[in-house]
UniProtKB/TrEMBL annotation:
It comes from Actinoalloteichus caeruleus DSM 43889. The keyword Lipid biosynthesis does not apply. Signal peptide: none annotated. It is an enzyme of class 2 (transferase). Its main location: cytoplasm. Its EC number is 2.1.1.77. This is Protein-L-isoaspartate O-methyltransferase.
Length: 400
């Protein structure tokens, strides 16, 4: 453990109490892990974006505010590419807690973790499975794995085995696993995962729930007979799982139908209905501009509105982004409209989908802003694994 371990005990207590009060932590096992593992042993130099978008660089060695920043409920950016774009981060504690609670790992379990990152989540898993359990942790980035090796050795952790590997392939040599957790987003549930687990194993991962860029959700499922069962979707999204170390993170890896590069970064559009119409997508991207009349109230819970769009308009769901951010909405070959977190609607082509998007936001508000928890998820076999899709529960979401 680092020398800072004892200083951070009150901050760990504060963060753990907050995660419990907000319902992210629900029982003693993960509470104990969050109390026991010092996050600063794994994340010491990082960038924090505060809610207003301000960016602050911290270094525990030189900066008195760093320790407190480490114990905010925020994703801490730990690695950048040459252009300053994040390539690895320590996931926000609330999303970590939500996923770990659903993983339900027990002492003695063998766990496959995909996306080692800083090593902090591996240390939490190590604590939960105890000395009789085992955690194989994979990252595509060999520098992160070398760092994790070193940090776990220094912390005296003996049940974590960091490996360089592509999460899509799993790690057969360490299995069979009782649990798999992935902190990066595959486009399908990979077939090797289903083959490397014990019967009844639980998998928790961020996964694509539509062939649309950034259409991600957290999914929990059981594996029986080599297939995913009992799928439940939850809000949350991680960086995309990629089969090599990336240098450009600002452009989503999959399902982008048209993109344009500017000195500030890429502009792009992705829509379920645009994949077969690349020239229409390029035209819509060219014409996409903010409308003069933003929504009276923005969908603050963007994950919730994303869930609504994917469930009520799966064939028209779309996302579009630029260096300032991205929006979710609808696109067809003649029209596109997406709403950004500030309520601005970006629109191109005819007014058809602009009106439909406004109606959809109203209907979502009238329904009480349901989110992924109000949906059901299904898995469909594909060549690479299982594609996950979401739909309305029998009596849940209704809307135009
Ligand atoms: C959000 S970070 C993980 C955060 C980590 N759980 C922590 O506590 O710091 C996601 C990680 O997934 C890794 N990753 C992306 N694609 C991968 C792949 N195909 N296989 C393994 N790791 C991958 C990235 O290199 C990155 O370190």
């Amino acid at each position: 453990m680092t020398p800072t371990t004892h200083h951070s005990a009150p901050l760990r207590r504060q963060l753990t109490d907050k995660l419990s009060a907000d319902g992210f932590l629900r029982g003693s096992r993960w509470e104990e892990a969050f109390l026991a593992v010092p996050r600063e042993a794994f994340v010491s130099r990082f960038v924090l974006h505060d809610p207003s978008g301000e960016r602050a660089e911290h270094d525990l060695a030189t900066d008195g505010a760093a320790l407190e920043a480490i114990y905010t409920n925020a994703s801490l950016i730990t690695r950048h590419d040459a252009g300053g774009t994040p390539t690895s981060s320590s996931t926000s504690p609330s999303l970590m807690a939500l996923m770990l609670e659903r993983l339900d790992a027990h002492p003695g379990h063998r766990v496959l973790e995909i996306g080692t990152g800083s090593g902090y989540s591996s240390a939490l898993l190590s604590h939960a499975v105890g000395p009789s359990g085992h955690v194989v942790t994979l990252d595509i980035d060999d520098a992160l794995i070398a760092r994790a090796h070193d940090l776990h050795r220094r912390a005296g952790t003996t049940n974590v085995d960091p490996r360089v590997g592509d999460g899509y392939q799993g790690w057969a040599a360490g299995g069979p696993y009782d649990r798999i957790i992935a902190w990066a987003t595959p486009h399908v549930l990979p077939r090797p995962w289903m083959e490397q687990v014990t019967p009844g194993a639980v998998v928790v991962t961020s996964v694509k729930v539509a062939e649309v860029a950034l259409a991600n959700a957290v999914l929990r499922c059981h594996v029986t007979g080599g297939q995913p069962w009992l799928l439940s979707p939850h809000p949350g999204s991680m960086i995309e799982m990629h089969a090599r170390v990336l240098t450009e993170f600002r452009l989503p890896i999959r399902y982008v139908d048209a993109a344009r590069h500017t000195p500030q970064g890429p502009c792009w559009i992705s829509g379920a209905a645009l994949h077969a119409h690349p020239s229409a997508a390029a035209e819509l991207l060219r014409d996409l501009t903010p409308t003069m009349t933003p929504l009276p109230s923005a969908p603050e819970n963007r994950d919730g509105f994303k869930a609504w769009v994917l469930a009520t308009h799966p064939d028209q769901a779309a996302t579009a982004g630029d260096p300032e951010g991205w929006g979710i909405g609808l696109a067809g070959h003649d029209s596109a409209a997406v709403v950004r977190p500030d309520g601005t609607i970006h629109h191109a082509g005819s007014d058809r989908l602009l009106h439909q998007l406004r109606r959809s936001v109203r209907a979502w508000n009238d329904a009480g802003q349901p989110g992924f928890e109000a949906l059901t998820a299904h898995a469909h076999p594909t060549a690479e694994g299982w594609a996950v899709r979401v739909s309305r529960r029998q009596q849940g979401l209704t809307g135009p």
